[in-house]
Amino acid sequence: MTELATMDFHPQPQAGEARPWAFPAPERGTLDNGLTVLRCHRPGQQVVAVEVLLDAPLDAEPTGLDGVATIMARAFSEGTDKHSAEEFAAELERCGATLDAHADHPGVRLSLEVPASRLAKGLGLIADALRAPAFADSEVERLVRNRLDEIPHELANPSRRAAKELSKELFPASSRMSRPRQGTEETVAGIDSAAVRAFYEKHVRPATATAVVVGDLTGVDLDALLGDTLGSWTGSTAQPRPVPPVVADDTGRVVIVDRPGAVQTQLLIGRVGPDRHDRVWPAQVLGTYCLGGTLTSRLDRVLREEKGYTYGVRAFGQVLRSAPDGTGAAMLAISGSVDTPNTGPALEDLWTVLRTLAAEGLTDAERDVAVQNLVGVAPLKYETAAAVASTLADQVEQHLPDDYQAELYRQLAATGTVEATAAVVNAFPVDRLVTVLVGDAARIKAPVEALGIGEVAVVAAE
């Protein structure tokens, strides 16, 4: 009999000793031109992330020019006093960098990622973009045309259409939050290079801006680099703009955006609640995660696993805008899609989940899984410099202390089941939710009216 050959296996790797982890703390400083700088040394992160926050919020846009902040943000990478748009793009590519920019309610944010070995070049390019953007007529016209081309596609997207309608329903017409962040066809069509430059000159200056730099800064004289690049950006001094209060009407009601023949109904159910300054936020995050934060949440367990109505339903809280005095608001919402015939039954079951939650509460097991998922994965979530920089930038935008994220994880781990239950029940009261449905009104209106979750109105899809 032939003997079987034996194999020598390499010893199985063993887990090392667990090391304590905390969200990294930044160092804070100010350049001579007034620019606030947060820096965070992350050994081994050879791609450095830079976030620059500008105090140019959407509510500062001139009347009738909604979207000018977005066009300005996009135009920052379309040429400077030193480079044309094509040359600027080529310079970014030569140093292996990417530069993105977007506008939101708190302001405009530029995001740069660049290899640490080419940090000086990358900082020089973003400094040029901020210091002397070209805002050439032809480039702004192209960006406006591109934006106009995007709008019909967004309106055709059920989730985007639902978000637009929910904002319109929740906030008064006089509030910038009631209108699309990137403008409408009417407002964007009126934007030109003169309007973009006027907005830039009025709101973009280093004295009210913040730069966040995260990555491996070994051997880097960051003070000198910043002084030679972002430090050359000049502008007048000014106080940050006052933040208007967030006013919303969450009277329970239903709005159906009619899409005749739609085979699915897009659901977006929301209201406005506390933001991260409120002491209830950690418990609210935990409770909301138990409700709809993952595949094992209550909403998914009922609507997806038991009933098969949907591929997934999510509950979440998204900060809208915060003020320096600690006031602010967040959007608390539930989103998903269901097949058209089961729209009524799915909503009925969703409300049953909310009512059961109020009556019976969360379980300790649900709370423990949520803590494990939210806190336990944090070291993986923040492996990259970009993830750390983005979170630090969020804290700046929301006027939070530099140690907020680290403290949040500690609070999440210490939050009990009873606290999480109370927070999520208060976040999603069954009689104070605005429900937007994008679907076939002829088929879903009557079943939804029978639920008694609020007055039902139908609007055209546009």
Automatic annotation (TrEMBL):
Record InterPro entries: Metalloenz_LuxS/M16, MPP/UQCRC_Complex, Pept_M16_N, Peptidase_M16_C
Xref: Gene3D superfamilies: Metalloenzyme, LuxS/M16 peptidase-like
Domain annotation Peptidase M16 N-terminal: ranges: 38-168
TM annotation in the entry: none
Pfam family, one: Peptidase_M16_C
Gene Ontology molecular function: metal ion binding
Source domain of life: Bacteria
Domain Peptidase M16 C-terminal: 192-374
Region entry Disordered, spans: 1-20
Protein name in the entry: Zn-dependent peptidase
Organism: Streptomyces griseomycini
